[in-house]
């Protein structure tokens, strides 16, 4: 079993579906299910809360009883079932319920794949960026396909694309996996690993967590309103797919070289770079509301997201024991990628109704303070 290849394939297949969900799901609720932007924002916001609860508690818990491969398989099956429930659903209340259920299962696949990656890195000679770039490639391919499919069949094709992607991922989960991911956790290790207390005993972890909460949460407006924003600028669906892919292309280039270019860099230094790039990105979109500046700002995704994410993976790989990796990934996914994004999605929805550009500018209220936090704490906590 080639562990590097297995990890690359699983990143690729997951991000095929993520490329359907992340940029298009809010727009799909608005266009195909005929919800208003505030209604879709409310549903997606509560979906992010459900995602946060699931990845904070449920995912780390089951990871102590099931092997990594079993967790991936069960989550994939559950995600497919939840997605199928959207087919007969049309009312606001039922869409709310189905989205909360879907959000409690599907996004948990992200920390599951990331946890598998971190375990493989600790166990062998695996390069994270080398495999993670295939996830970004899958995302690019997915967005291109969706842009063409929706251009021909309309937004209703988004749901069927997600169903097809999850079916392919299920096939992948049934393939042989690395031995370390097939091992069931030992009973004697459960009590120690079930507790998240060990995370907080690492002095720098709360600071690092706060940093990624602010940096990753600041992508809320981009993830949820980028598609609608480009439509408001008069861009057709096919071109929107191409424009959204600019960000991921730069992300691919970054992950392809990250292991070598930033091997000796401290996570705190990488976080500073990410905070500066993120602030610049949202200011540009606000100051220059046109398609060309938006396209230019897309190059900064490799900084605002890519560098911040790589810095966190680098930090937990070097500072946490293997048994705490699912806990760390669960907390990261729940708090940084869900709860903070949920709050800022609702804030962004309100600002978008006032002025689309304000939804993006509002994000610097969370990225600029990161710079001061890092400058004050990096030497004291040595991270």
From TrEMBL:
Residues 6-360 form the Major facilitator superfamily associated domain. Its main location: membrane. It is found in: Cell inner membrane. The chain crosses the membrane at residues 12-30, 42-59, 71-88, 94-113, 134-153, 159-183, 204-225, 237-256, 268-293, 299-317, 329-352, 358-377. Pfam families: MFS_1_like. It is a multi-pass membrane protein. Keywords: Cell inner membrane, Cell membrane, Membrane, Transmembrane, Transmembrane helix, Transport. This is MFS transporter.
């Amino acid at each position: 079993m080639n562990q590097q290849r297995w990890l690359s394939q699983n990143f690729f297949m997951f991000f095929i579906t993520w490329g359907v969900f992340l940029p298009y799901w809010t727009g799909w609720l608005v266009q195909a299910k005929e919800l208003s932007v505030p209604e879709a924002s409310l549903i997606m916001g509560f979906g992010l809360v459900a995602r946060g609860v699931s990845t904070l508690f449920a995912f780390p818990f089951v990871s102590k009883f099931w092997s990594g491969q079993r967790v991936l398989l069960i989550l994939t099956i559950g995600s497919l079932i939840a997605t199928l429930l959207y087919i007969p659903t049309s009312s606001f209340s039922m869409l709310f319920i189905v989205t909360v259920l879907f959000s409690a299962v599907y996004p948990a696949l992200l920390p599951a794949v990331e946890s598998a990656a971190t375990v493989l890195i600790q166990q062998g000679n695996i390069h994270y960026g080398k495999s993670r770039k295939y996830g970004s490639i899958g995302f690019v391919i997915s967005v291109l396909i969706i842009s063409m499919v929706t251009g021909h069949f309309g937004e209703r094709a988004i749901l069927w694309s997600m169903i097809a992607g999850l079916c392919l991922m299920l096939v992948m989960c049934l393939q042989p996996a690395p031995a370390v991911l097939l091992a069931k956790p030992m009973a004697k290790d459960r009590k120690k690993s079930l507790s998240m207390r060990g995370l907080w005993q690492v002095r720098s972890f709360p600071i690092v967590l706060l940093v990624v909460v602010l940096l990753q949460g600041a992508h809320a407006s981009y993830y949820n309103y980028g598609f609608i924003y480009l439509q408001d600028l008069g861009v057709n669906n096919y071109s929107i797919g191409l424009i959204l892919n600019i960000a991921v292309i730069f992300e691919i280039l970054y992950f392809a070289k990250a292991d070598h270019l930033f091997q000796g860099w401290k996570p705190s230094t990488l976080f500073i770079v990410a905070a500066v790039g993120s602030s610049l990105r949202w200011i540009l979109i606000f100051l220059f509301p046109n398609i060309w500046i938006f396209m230019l700002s897309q190059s900064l995704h490799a900084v605002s997201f890519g560098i911040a994410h790589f810095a966190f993976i680098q930090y937990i790989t070097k500072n946490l024991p293997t048994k705490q990796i699912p806990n760390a990934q669960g907390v990261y996914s729940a708090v940084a990628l869900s709860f903070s994004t949920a709050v800022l999605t609702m804030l962004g929805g309100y600002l978008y109704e006032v002025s689309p550009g304000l939804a993006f500018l509002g994000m610097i209220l969370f990225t600029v303070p990161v710079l001061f936090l890092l400058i004050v704490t990096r030497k004291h906590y040595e991270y």
